Structures are given as C-alpha cells and as structure tokens.
Amino acid sequence: MKKILFTAILCLFGIQWAYCQIELTEEKKASIRQQVNKDASDLWDTLNRQGNLHPIMIEFMVDTFRIEQICRLKMEVDYSTQGINQIIYDCTKEYDALLNKYYGQLIQKLNAADKKLMQNSQRNWLAFRDQEKLVIEMLGKEEYTGGGTIQSNFTALDQYNLIKQRTVEIASHLLRVSEFK
C-alpha cells in the first residue's frame, strides 16, 4: 500500500514538473539574446556569401530574424498567458523600432516633394494604427468573444501584426528606391 501511495505521489509531482514553466529571468533573456545574436551573425554571413541579395534586404532579413527568434525562444520558456502577452508586446516594440529605422532611411532617399507625401502617408497610417488598436481591443471584449484569458493573446497578436505589416511595407518601399541607386 505504501508503495502504491508513494508511486501515485511521485507520478503527481512528475506530471506537475513536466508542465512547469521556467521563469524568464534577466539571465535567461541575456542567454537568449546572445544565442540569437550569434545565429543572426551566421545568417548575415550566409546571405552575404550568396551574393544575390541587396544589402538592405539582407539587413532587413537579419533584423526580423532576430526579433522572431527572440520571441519564439522566450515563448518556449514562458508560455503563460501573461508571459506570451509580454513577449508579444516586447516584440511589437522591436518592430516599431525597425519601422522607424527603415522609415528614416526611406525619407533620406526622397526629394523634398516626395518626402512631404511620404510624411503625410505615415501620419495617416499612424492615425489609422491608433484607431485600429482601439478596434482590436473592442473586438476582444467578452461580449463579442465569449471571454477567456486567451483573448488577450489574440489582441496582442493582432496589434503585433499591424506594426509588423507596416514595417514590411516601409522596408519594401526602401528596397524599391534603393535598387537603382
């Protein structure tokens, strides 16, 4: 009887241990960044050796690889609802920084009149982004979704995709005007 009870308790703790998440500590985040930076450097070398890609395309591919890999590796460690939301929000901020980086490069390549047009377009997109974020949050309400904590993951992901898509568009514009100069 003692043996069966001991085995049952051991199995219970074993099952809980198997599903236990590891805390995403600053040390673990640093380790992930270090690993991804090495992988990104290897990717940069590989893409450069191919010799058939524009330097801006290579830079963009490496920049986005870095964000996506960090996001993926962090989620392997902390896959709680709150953890996933924080990771997605962090990755959204990284894409927003890329958006600003590539937008700045694009603006530098345009003449004065075209800069004005691009600036107006970006201001309009920013207004759209702000309204779309409100729509995304509204659509996540319990009255429309039935609720549940996963709705916050969907909201975070939709906002992430909104910023990521614009970043890709801006980088594409930059590549287009850079290919012939």
Cα(first) to Cα(last) distance is 81 Å
Low-confidence stretches: 15-19
Helix content: over 70%
Task: Sketch the topology as an H/E string, one letter per element.
Answer: HHHHHHH
* Total DSSP helices: 7
Percent of residues in beta strands? under 5%
Structural class: mainly alpha
**How many beta-strand elements?**
0
User: Rounded to an integer, what's the Rg over CA atoms?
Assistant: 22 Å
Shape: flat
Overall mean pLDDT score?
Answer: 88
Tally of discrete structural domains: 1
Biggest β-sheet strands, sense, barrel: none
Provide key terms for this protein.
single chain, mainly alpha, 7 helices, flat
3D architecture notes:
The protein is mainly alpha-helical and 181 residues long. It has one domain (25-178). The protein has seven helices and no strands. It has helices spanning 2-18, 26-50, 55-77, 81-108, 112-139, 142-145, 150-178. Helix 4 (81-108) runs parallel beside helix 7 and helix 5 (112-139) runs antiparallel to helix 7 (150-178). The relative contact order is 0.10.
